[in-house]
Amino acid sequence: MILLMPRFLFFSILSVVFSTALHAQAFKGSVTDSAGNPLPFSTIYIKELAYGTSANQDGEFQLKLAPGNYTCIFQSMGYRKVTKNILVGKGTISLHVILPGLVYSLNEVVISSGGEDPANKIMRNVIANAPLHAGMVTEYTADVYIRGSMEIQQLSSMVKWMARDQLKEQGIKEGDTYLEESVNEIIFKAPNIVNQKVKSIHSTFPGNDQGGSSVAVGYISQNIYSPTAFGNAVSPLTAGAFSYYRYSYEGANQYGNVMVDKIKIIPNGDGPQYVSGYLYVIEGLWCIYSMDVNINSQLGTRIKINQTFGEVREGAWLAVNNRYTVDIEIMGNKSAINYYTSIKYNSIAINAEVAGESKANAERWLQGKKVVSKKARLQVSKIDEKLLRLSSSDSPTTAEANRISKLILRQKDIIRRDSLKNNHDYIERYKTEIDSAARTRDSSYWNQARPIPLSLAEKQGSMAFDSLHAGGNRQQNDSSRSSLHLSKKLLKALLTGGRYDPDTLKYFKSKGLLNPFGLNFNAVDGFAYKTDFGLYLKTKKQGLVSVSFSPGYAFSRKAMDWNAGIMYSDHGRLKQEFSITAGSGSTDFNPAGAMAIENSLSALLLHDNISRFYLRNYLVLNHSIRISHEMKLSSSLAFEDNRLETNNTDFSLLYSESRTYKANIPAVSSYSMADHGNLQFETTLTYRPVPYYYIKDGLKIPRPGLNNTPTFFAGYKKGIPSGGFKTNFDFIHSGLSQTLKSGLRSQLSYSLEAGYFASKKTSYFNEYKQFASQPYLLGIKSMYPVFQLLDYYSNSTNTGYCEGHLMYKTPMLLLKHLPLVRNRLWTESLSGNYLYIPSMGYRLELGYSIGNDFYQAGIYSGFSNAGFQSVAFRVTLSIFSSKQLSISF
User: Which burial class, exposed, middle or buried, applies to 112 when counting CB atoms under 10 A from its CB (0-12, 13-18, 19+)?
Assistant: First the structure.
């Protein structure tokens, strides 16, 4: 997928801007060391223009500058900085710059009596000041040249076979290099609003021969001082970093009027949660001068980041060029991505207090912010008092540095939340506009405009593309090619699954006639196969109409297993949804019991049918409406004919058919079932306070990441005795759930629910309250909120119950301190599950687990009224839960 969609990968991984006046003159040259060896990706910074770029991998550079005098600074880590005064006139200027080697001085390093590395003191100051530098710039405009290229180094045999038509159609082959370059204007406003105006763009990515994409490679504008700047990896500049890294002082050198310390980052492990490499820190300001770091391998991906910063305003150091290298190696497929930016700042607004002072003035800076409420002012004031005490020392301890960083982040979050609570204006966070003439530039323009010359592979790829598509020529007629392409996509969607878009208003999705995940097995149906087809039509009023059909067949039961439906959803103010569904098939008594793949494996390999089924023929009317942006009401009316089922096969892969399956009856005393009709009405009201929202097109939309409020719900279900429908019961239930952040990377989740059957004149086992559980060693459900030691059916009830789940998840708790697992991108969890049923007493589970979103392993202890019950080990492969076909409806 990654290799067949290189352009999409680019937009996903790399998310301003360089322009050239027509009257500008060329300034080009090369950068080498004293021996004449090129210095790849050396930095060139034009001081008067606050303009930074870099040389290419051969040390070559090329700029367009208006006539005038300029101070040009050339630098590369490990070499002395060289400053040249350049007079640009009417002609082209060529310059060969030699950077002498540099040895970082250790002469003045004083090791403390305790033998502490001087890097620790430096990094404590960096960590303490990082939140201030993160908020230094309030807004800026810039001209930015962006280039991204992707080289297809190797395609696996599987990809070559499965995607041979797409590869041939798009002309993708091993060794090809694709690039996109653009000249942009970037408008940035803190904390994360970016407008990208694309003035010109040139792309050789597959698909651009059809007129070009409507999107462009984005501007990477992450703030390196943010705790999440390095994605899943722990930032070496954030509070708590000393738990993940050691730092080594490798010397200092004078760069102009600043002293720069070289700090080596030494991770405590080699997993994807770590960063390694070098930071260059400006003494006194405690900000980054440059960095050269690697984010360790994750899922076959290695990322290298090089950034150089310039003093764009006095005391304000911002990135003036960026280079990202991404090497991808997944299942025999290899590719390499390179991303560059050259930045020329046109206007910058900074917090002067932050630029000119250190952490000692944090409280004064934050007090100058507009804080609306008295409560927020009081909270900020209390934090100021703590910061004043902690900031009295110029050499904070590790604990003090962490505390300062966390307090400032907390203070800024209070101010941000307070300012947004009554601000409901919508502002698009990232907006891209492409000029209508952006794609009209020819190769001569780009040869003049690009400040970073192309590599040999990029040149070859660009020349081949431009030659092939010069003058609008095509290898075949566009309309016939498009028609053939659409026909192939429709056939593929029908046979093997996928999506087919004949136009912008409708699309077709299916799992395909050949759907391997549609095959399952149980003792009632035997082998059963099912697949899905759906047609979706977009309406003019932000609505969607869908028609779905899921045909299937149960081979041992010798019956169709199907369901069909029609649905209309309105995405307007009320966000209403109407649907009618009908179907027939074997259905698990417990919809939250065993998944189809779990029961299939258990039956085929162990001759144990862990699920119990009844036949459900149904017609259901559904409606939901968003009463407000905080409240939703869902209702349904179901007409059901429920019938008893018996086993129809004793087949198993490892056992002879002389061994029979257990009867298709839940082995519990509360079981009561007969053929019956069920006319059932159900309604649920959900409410979640949303104090932080914005208004877009008249709709209130929650602001992401701010509304960590609980979700409340209350529901009522009624069995209506009428005509041939027998059930007669009333069931009410309510509860709440919430997930809270308890640290930068920790969270606490809980859910509570209680219910009661107010009447139960006539009800059967399939109408009882059932509970989500995973009572076997291996399963595919997530561990929260699921009982791990309860049987699928033994606690089903038609009386009352109280249920609760709690999970605390953190990246470092117990086992993660051990060397063998420290390097894994795992989290650890402590959990508790509680269930009380008046007739049965209570059940309590306490557990510990470790893993990630794809798999987890844990150990659980169970308790009841009788005391301790059992200890069990559990493994969940939740990665498969989305790939199985459930046989319940």
Answer: exposed
Q: Which candidate, 60, 96, 98, places its Cα nearest to that of 79?
A: 98
Tens of pLDDT, residues 669-707: 889 999 999 999 999 999 999 999 888 877 888 888 889
**Residue 687 region, left (φ>0) first, then alpha (ψ -120 to 50), else beta?**
beta
Chain-wide mean pLDDT for the chain?
84
The rounded distance, in Å, linking the Cα atoms of 728 and 677 is 11
SS3 category, 855: coil
Q: Which two tokens stand for residue 12?
A: 């996903």
- Residues 509 and 607: their CA atoms lie apart, in Å, by 36
Coil/strand/helix, residue 450 = coil
Confirm if 661 and 522 have CB atoms less than 8 A apart.
no
Q: Which amino acid is at 48?
A: E
- Residues 201 and 181: their CA atoms lie apart, in Å, by 6
Q: How many residues does the chain have?
A: 889
Model confidence pLDDT, tens digit, residues 756-783: 999 999 999 999 999 999 999 999 899 9
Is the distance from CB of 225 to CB of 47 less than 8 angstroms?
no
837 within 8 A of 798, measured Cβ to Cβ: no
**Beta strands 867-876 and 856-864: pairing type?**
antiparallel
Helix (H) / strand (E) containing 132 = helix 118-134
Location of structure tokens 């900031």: 391
In 3D space, the residue among 296, 294, 323 whose CA is nearest the CA of residue 307 turns out to be 323
For residue 269, pLDDT beyond 70: yes
Q: Which residues pair with 38 in a beta bridge?
A: 32
pLDDT of residue 276 exceeding 50, the answer is yes
| 540-559 mean pLDDT | 93
Instruction: Calculate the CA dihedral of residues 862, 867, 870, 876 and round it to 10 degrees.
Output: 0
Token pair 């201030």 in the structure block, residue: 132
The whole-model pTM stands at 0.78
Q: Are 668 and 608 in contact (CB under 8 A)?
A: no
Q: For residue 221, name the pLDDT band (cuts at 50, 70, 90).
A: confident
Q: Would you say 820 and 838 are in contact if contact means Cβ atoms under 8 Å apart?
A: no
Cβ(792)–Cβ(590) below 8 Å: yes
Say if residues 336 and 326 touch (Cβ distance below 8 Å): yes
Between strands 60-65 and 193-203, the pairing is unpaired
For residues 814 and 657, give the distance between their C-alpha atoms in angstroms, rounded to a whole number. 48
Helices (H), 618-666: none
Q: Which of 790, 804, 774, 799 is nearest to 877 (CA)?
A: 774
Which pair of tokens denotes residue 796?
Answer: 């089903």
